[in-house]
Design goal:
eight-stranded mixed sheet, six-stranded mixed sheet
């Protein structure tokens, strides 16, 4: 009797030990326990079978099933894309994720050089460390409504990102005003009512509500200039890690923000020019991190007057003449411009009508201003 009981128990344990890796349309699956039942997980085959050289080389479009069967009868829901599942999948361009997936595991889509776009369905709740990271061809990313548990490094180093959107029903994150960034929406009980820019791309425009730039937000982006509006109060570590083309930083804050020692790279201190509001250069020079920049220059952050092209404090015919020089490709004495902290290019006194161009319409606008003043 004891022998029979032991054999029965042994067979039961064997049946609970899981199944061998199976392949469906080029994607490999195994099982894992979720509470008291089993579900399916996408895996990289050689993680589970050291005798086989299984990987995703050659797979261009990964279509992940919503359920798979290991015994030909029972269908298990696919609820997880596992650890390093598609990491270094050199040919992967597209991926279809079903609405059954709840977890994108650590480094699941890390360093896939041809991956172009990815839509995270509303079912996904968790994206772990480096879940969607370091994909040099990834241009579009959509975050679903259910994604509320994201590691700080879940979405970093995607250097080609141009479009980032978040489902409007997501309770934790948003991409308000089409800012091309993922923003942590917080309330008075979280992080002192600050709004955090979670991840960004070279086309991100910081909304006025964002006061905190989080870890790795611009990591490895190909940006050449960054604008820090006056409301930014903190920049966490590795914000600009790998931004090797960054040469200009316009900081509109009269008080230096809090920074970590690794907010910038060492070469930024040598190669970047830090522009600060007029009258604050000495303050910045005395503050850790900011004081490490070798090239700090002051600029007039708030005194640009549309029409005062030569900067003499008056709007006269001389300003109209300066616009003519600019239109003809010349450089007008006293003409300065600064980047717009709210996005949309530059604040330029020569662009009198604010249409983003300097042309004959701006000359006419200056003449109208002069005539109006003398009438």
């Amino acid at each position: 009797m004891k022998r029979l009981l032991f054999i029965t128990l042994l067979m039961a344990c064997a049946s609970l030990a899981g199944h061998a890796v199976i392949e469906v349309d080029g994607v490999f699956y195994n099982t894992y326990w979720v509470g008291s039942h089993q579900e399916a997980v996408v895996v990289v085959g050689d993680t589970y079978d050291q005798d086989k050289e299984i990987n995703y080389t050659g797979l261009v479009h990964a279509i992940i099933r919503d359920s798979v069967s290991f015994d030909g009868t029972t269908m298990l829901p696919v609820s997880k894309i596992g650890w390093v599942a598609f990491q270094w999948a050199t040919d992967l361009e597209e991926v279809t994720i079903p609405n059954t997936v709840k977890i994108i595991g650590e480094a699941a889509f890390n360093k896939c050089p041809k991956l172009r776009s990815i839509t995270i369905p509303n079912s996904v709740v968790t994206i772990e460390e480096w879940g969607i990271a370091h994909n040099e061809s990834l241009r579009e990313l959509h975050l679903g409504s259910g994604a509320v548990n994201l590691d700080n490094s879940a979405i970093v180093g995607n250097t080609a990102l141009e479009v980032i959107t978040v489902d409007e029903n997501n309770p934790i994150y948003d991409s308000r005003n089409n800012c091309n960034g993922i923003i942590t929406t917080v309330n008075n009980s979280m992080v002192h009512d600050r709004h955090i820019l979670f991840t960004a791309c070279s086309r991100t425009v910081l909304p006025r509500e964002v006061t905190w730039i989080a870890r790795g937000a611009y990591q490895h982006q190909g940006i050449t200039m960054v604008i820090l509006p006056e409301q930014i109060t903190n920049l966490e570590y590795t914000c600009f890690e790998g931004c090797e083309y960054l040469t200009e930083i316009y900081n509109f804050s009269s008080e230096p923000q809090g920074c970590m020692g690794t907010t910038f790279e060492d070469y930024h201190y040598e190669n970047c020019t830090l522009y600060v509001p007029r009258g604050t250069k000495e303050i910045y020079e005395q503050v850790p991190v900011w004081g490490s920049f070798r090239h700090i220059e002051e600029f007039d952050a708030t005194t640009i007057i549309p029409g005062d092209v030569n900067g003499d404090g008056e709007i006269t015919v001389a300003d109209a003449n300066s616009v003519v020089v600019i239109i003809n490709g010349g450089s007008s004495h006293g003409h300065t411009r600064v980047p717009n902290p709210d996005g949309g290019g530059w604040i330029d006194p020569a662009d009198v009508n604010g249409d983003g161009e300097v042309n004959i319409a701006d000359i006419n606008a200056i003449i109208d201003m002069i005539l109006s003043h003398h009438s």
